[in-house]
Amino acid sequence: MSAADWKKKCEAEWSLQGAPMPDSLDWKSIYEARPLGRNLLKNPAPHGLSKDIPPPEPELPTMPTHGPPRFQPDGDFTGWSTSTEVLPYDTSGIPPGVVICQLPQYGWFSMEQVIDLKAEGLWDELLDEFQPEIVIQDWYEESQVHESIYQLQVKLLGADKSTIIAEYNVNPAEDLSAYSHTWKEVSHVFSGYGPGVRYVRFLHRLKNKFMMEFFPTLFACSSVIVKPN
């Protein structure tokens, strides 16, 4: 297949009519990279869970294990940069002189990926002039361990990986008045973000609780997808 044929194949399959498509690009390699319409995040479900199946109910032992505190859930986090922030005990609302036997301790578990859009197969002219939609989607468990259990920060960055061209932040508050245990969706679409975007920084934080046992907040099916307009 000729270079022109590969270019036409990309244009037809990804509906790129009107998009800048320089002849100088290797359209066969771009087609094989398939940068449009696929999830650019690596390992989007480290816990092996799917949003299409309800999150697992916590399994409590018959006797507390009283093990050392932990703040990172089980999972294969290959492809993610992870960190843990253990929060101080919250003693607000406890009257003076009250004897405390046990308090919950919370910690944020953060996971981050930085996506190199050009390395994934996108090209300068498409990003700068056509500015295809960048669709963000994430699903987190309604764990009910706290009223604040999830934070998401997504930044579109320039070539220097530090200039912020556009960003989206969310920190939802949970309703703990009634028990509910489902997946909750968070989504956002970047469009018309301006020229210069070369990287996407995806960072989400989930709060876990330790009180004699470990109570995590899990997530599933995170995605960053570039779509033609």
From TrEMBL:
Annotated signal peptide: none
Example GO molecular function: ubiquitin protein ligase activity
GO biological process: ERAD pathway; glycoprotein catabolic process; SCF-dependent proteasomal ubiquitin-dependent protein catabolic process
Organism of derivation: Channa argus (Northern snakehead)
Ranges of biased composition (kind: Pro residues): 53-66
Region (Disordered): 42-66
Protein known as: F-box only protein 50 NCC receptor protein 1
Record flagged with keyword Cytoplasm: no
Keywords: Receptor
Annotated FBA domain residues: 30-228
InterPro entries given in the database record: F-box-assoc_dom, F-box_only, Galactose-bd-like_sf
UniProt xrefs under PANTHER family: F-BOX ONLY PROTEIN 50 (PTHR12125:SF1), F-BOX ONLY PROTEIN 6-LIKE PROTEIN (PTHR12125)
Claim: S-adenosyl-L-methionine is one of the keywords in the record: no
GO cellular component labels: cytoplasm; SCF ubiquitin ligase complex
